[in-house]
Amino acid sequence: MKRQPIRWLMVMSLVAVATVGVFGVMAQPDDDKRPGPPPRYELGHVFPPPLLEQLNLTSDQQAELEILQQELKSKLEKLLTDEQKQQVENFRPRRPGGPGGPDGKGPPPPPDRPAAGRKGPDRRDRAASSAAEAVPPAKLQELPLGVTRAPVVFSGGHETDPRDGGRPVVLIAAALEVAPEVFRDAFSRVRPARGGEPEPAQVRQNKAVLLEALGKQGVTNERLDTVSDYYRYPPGRNSLWKNKPAVANALVKDGAVIGYEIVSGGAGYTSAPTVSVPKVKGAVAKVEISFSKQMESNGAVSSIVIPDGNAN
Hints:
Blueprint: H1 3-26, H2 49-55, H3 59-79, H4 82-90, H5 123-129, E1 147-151, E2 153-155, H6 169-176, H7 180-187, H8 200-214, H9 221-231, E3 247-253, E4 256-264, E5 274-276, E6 286-290, E7 300-305
Antiparallel strand pairs: 1-3, 2-5, 3-4, 6-7
């Protein structure tokens, strides 16, 4: 309990360092390479990839950093609204050197900041596009006359089986390409640490037990390490494994939802999330999720439909 304030201070310190690091790294383009588009910012990440490579962290530091980042991400996800999260998702830092990046060789300026001599959108244009801010323009398709879009809000979707002690077994099993029951059976032979970090000898023993059972299913030592590291998260009431919220729209006509469109299925869902449409009353939906060995899309929302008997 006493570590939480200290750890949060550590996280905030890292955020401050990362802020300097992001702009410091981007302010020094490589003279031998034509600058490309800036990297995408990921919620909770405190160091940009170029700086992270330069730091050459030890494995222990990397593990501790991952824990801190997961804690920060969890807190930010509770702090930010869905619209703000989408803005973070779409954010791309600008390169220094004015429009087009250093020496004008980079990408063109974003639409809301036109280059000199070009007229930008007026307020009426901005107001007309405000309803689509939650969805990247490239994802939008022309709708029939009278049909509009309304952003969907996803809630929950991270329930686990009571037998799993809070572990996302369905995600881990899918990433390892084994059935959940197979992983549960293998993990039942593991002896987790109680009240602290396990001793190195216990870690090796637990891993050997898992490999003895999962190796028969074709799971390698390297794959087990990769999946375990990806879904490892600090224990705690508000902690959660690595995940990405889904993004979708409700298709509305005459004040009623007539369908849904998925912009991004997200990842990390272990159960079907609840769907609501703040701008439309009485909206109902049936959500399905899919699992994959590709961890970046494992546990994604794959289908949103109006349940039978509720269609207008």
